[in-house]
């Protein structure tokens, strides 16, 4: 069995599949890549459906992108349970228009019950447009029973 089909690589691919299966992602053109333990990248495409009345991306889009990237960076270190976001702080530095956005997430600390992660959004020009820090708690929900994850991690 190739290494990518076992252990942490299988866990990463299963998390990517879990992300793709989440119903909320039908509203966002996006894809997740777990790049290393504690690191996740999500590529998004924003369009007018994500805008507020003044013609830029609504804060809910920023939150979604930042929370997902930090969350999956942290959940890449937890192979048995689904994490839950318990707090998230955002800093907005620039409005986003239509087009591609990259969310880069990374684990900061914690491994037992609570994990802390951060993420940043990078626009098409390569500028950071937002940053966030989140706290994620282990839930009682086993990853193995969730649609998309099941059967992918060995």
How would you portray this structure in words?
- Residues 55-129 form the Thioesterase domain.
- GO terms for molecular function: thiolester hydrolase activity.
- By secondary structure, the chain is α+β, with helices and mostly antiparallel strands.
- It is 21% helix and 41% strand.
- The protein is built from 2 helices and 6 strands, in the order αββαββββ.
- Strands 1-2-4-5-6-3 form a 6-stranded antiparallel sheet.
- The longest helix is centred in the middle third of the chain and has 17 residues, at 59-75.
- The N and C termini lie close together (11 Å).
Offer a concise description of the structure.
With 154 residues, the chain is of the alpha+beta class.
What attributes characterize this protein structure?
Thiol Ester Dehydrase, Chain A; single chain; 154 residues; 6-stranded antiparallel beta sheet; 2 helices; alpha+beta
């Amino acid at each position: 069995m190739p290494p990518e089909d076992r252990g942490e690589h299988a866990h990463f691919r299963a998390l990517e599949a879990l992300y793709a299966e989440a119903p909320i992602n039908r509203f966002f053109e996006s894809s997740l890549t777990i790049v290393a333990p504690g690191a996740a990248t999500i590529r998004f495409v924003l369009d007018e459906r994500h805008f507020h009345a003044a013609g830029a991306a609504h804060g809910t889009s920023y939150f979604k992108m930042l929370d997902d990237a930090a969350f999956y960076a942290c959940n890449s270190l937890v192979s048995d349970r689904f994490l839950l976001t318990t707090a998230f702080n955002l800093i907005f530095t620039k409005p986003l228009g239509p087009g591609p956005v990259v969310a880069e997430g990374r684990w900061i600390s914690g491994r037992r019950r609570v994990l802390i992660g951060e993420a940043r959004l990078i626009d098409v020009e390569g500028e950071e447009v937002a940053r966030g820090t989140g706290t994620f708690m282990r839930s009682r929900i086993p990853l193995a029973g969730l649609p998309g994850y099941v059967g992918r991690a060995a």
